[in-house]
Automatic annotation (TrEMBL):
It catalyses: 5-methyltetrahydropteroyltri-L-glutamate + L-homocysteine = tetrahydropteroyltri-L-glutamate + L-methionine. Zn(2+) 1 binds at residues 645, 647, 660, 669, 730. It comes from Noviherbaspirillum saxi. GO terms for molecular function: 5-methyltetrahydropteroyltriglutamate-homocysteine S-methyltransferase activity; zinc ion binding. SUPFAM superfamilies: UROD/MetE-like (SSF51726). One of its GO terms (biological process) is methylation. This is 5-methyltetrahydropteroyltriglutamate--homocysteine methyltransferase. The active site is at 698 (proton donor). Its cofactor is Zn(2+).
Amino acid sequence: MVTTHNLGFPRIGAKRELKFALENYWKGLSSRDELTALGAQLRQRHWENQASLDLVPVGDFSFYDQVLDMSFMLGNIPERVRNLQGNALDNYFRVARGRSAKDSACSCVHAGEMTKWFDTNYHYIVPEFAVDTEFSLDASRLLDQIAQAHQLDVKAKPVIIGPVTYLWLGKAKDDSDKLALLPRLLPAYATLLNQLAEQGIEWVQIDEPVLVTELNAEWQRAFVTAYEAFKDGKVKLLLATYFGQLQDNLTLACKLPVQGLHIDAINARAEIEQVIQQLSTDRVLSLGVINGRNIWKTDLHATLEWLEPIHGVLQDRLWIAPSCSLLHVPVDLDSEQKMDSEIRSWLAFALQKLGELQILAKALNKGRVPAQEALIANNAAIEKRRTSTRVHNPEVKAALARIDAALGKRAGAYEQRAAKQSALLNLPAYPTTTIGSFPQTTEIRQARNQFKQGELDEATYRIAIQAEIARCVREQEALGLDVFVHGEAERNDMVEYFGEQLDGYAFSQFGWVQSYGSRCVKPPILFGDISRSKAMTVAWTRYAQSLTDKPMKGMLTGPVTILNWSFVRDDQPRSVSCYQLALAIREEVLDLEDAGVRVIQIDEAALREGLPLRRSQWNDYLQWAVESFRITANGVQDETQIHTHMCYSEFNDIIASIADMDADVITIETSRSDMELLDAFDNFNYPNEIGPGVYDIHSPNIPSQEHMVHLMRKAAERIPPQRLWVNPDCGLKTRAWEEVLPALKNMVEAARTLRESM
Ligand code: GLN
Ligand code: ZN
């Protein structure tokens, strides 16, 4: 008999119940008891949802983040909250967000750093280490959840992050060697495993996803040390890897003294044969056969064809599961009553994925006949999607086949272009601009929502948005900025806005996925060949330009960012979808140019985060990502100025690719780094223009003129002043007008001061 299990379940709730409960608690609108009761209720519901499984994850529920939970369990709590009075949950929130509930007597501390969980869009709180970090176990949170599970007769399999991955995820604040903490960390883990055994736990899932990254010999040795230390424990360990292939770590993973190994059989299918050969015959092999990272139905027939012979060999040693935790997919497709029914028939969210797992288990355990009905239905959906004309558009495929190197090349070199552009635009030195959005007021959001719901007719909506654009133009005139934006009032989200207008995209109503804490994203679903049937931004931009003589930037989201923030197709490489997006956005660029727009900004906010987990795959990604951008941007005349924007500043690794994009101007986030991050551009002799952000838009603080002059002077030590722009770090949509106006006023003043001293 094959065993079924799950690595983790989305904790936010099908209706984002956890999000709203957290936010109410933080605002002081509900009590801690109400919040913890909701947590218990969600756990119970999610276990019921998973009742068909042989083993159910426990401990995957979190009030904020599973890595932060682990830090608290290991007693690795930052000094700055350790001595604070008060409740443990509140201290936990202080590390997560800088404050607990409405901290009136402000026991505010600075929040822990947040970073992306491997190559997902989930963000975790980075564990903090120092040379003298000590660990002391407090497993009460997990033990309470286990007690709750046992009371409900849940077949509990606790989930914890393994010690090597835990260290790898953290940061030594004093630059000490964090791996040196391993000997101090292991006893805490050993105690934890003992406590779990005392609770009658048989299996523990211990997540070590770093095994799919490039590890040096020292980190590989750490695995041996760690798991040798747990060898005589009383619980059985299922060592879980996911998100990629093991490659150089394959033998290591197979030889560790654990009782079972979980492999992502979507990403690492090619390695399974080797794993079976190397794994000793007293070990369980868990195969992640359902994709936990996308929203597509599994081809159950193809999966069974592959899996049945493996089952024949492994028999009871075979377990099956989703490839990774289902944290990265929405909860329930059945909520999507408004979605086009054909497209919905191609999809599976968390609950549907668990249903698929059940069908696979039935077919493996009892033969395909008892599972036949479900298999036939699945096959019909898979076939329809495979051949649908809504997915496949021959014209798009033909256009893709015609792509050649010339398509992504500007006519003239940067110097020629810069001369022509400066003659035409006539900008002062240190030109000032903003990144695109202006504050989004409640009224704008309301108008947009009403229009979407059909409560507002198009003409009234247009007038409302135009009024907002006019306001932005007036304010920019008054401020004396040099290159204007229209303010993006018509956009809810920089990806969704374009997805909604492109053919090949679908939208869910409840397809929320946790990004961090209470924040969720609802990625649009790229299901088919992408094409653009009409201009998407030209009318708004043209209207904005009609109100001023200053150059108005056309504002677009680039293909790589649209791709990286969507659920994408699994039936073609990401690069192909990206090139399709590139061709569609290129049409928009050319239409803007035709409409007389002289400056066009193409945001690539998510280009860097698309980097694959393994460095060996970076070049391939960067090659097609950069080429996609070039195709989008570079069909314009020399006179048209192309801007791009990236809201981060770690460019060291990718500076050559950034230069290769050949945008005339790039604006980046730098204000917090005191411009030191411009070194990457300096060292590379980056040839084009740069706008290093001088206004930290993540903070409500209003930067002074002096501070911004100071930052720009530092920038000018690295980049020739003729090539510098003055602008904020990112868009202003999350800020209030009262903050934005004085900040920009100071920014414009700063630019004047800089010009005078040239
Ligand atoms: N143009 C977008 C804005 O200003 C850019 C946002 C981003 O980079 N995340 O909102
Ligand atoms: Zn940005």
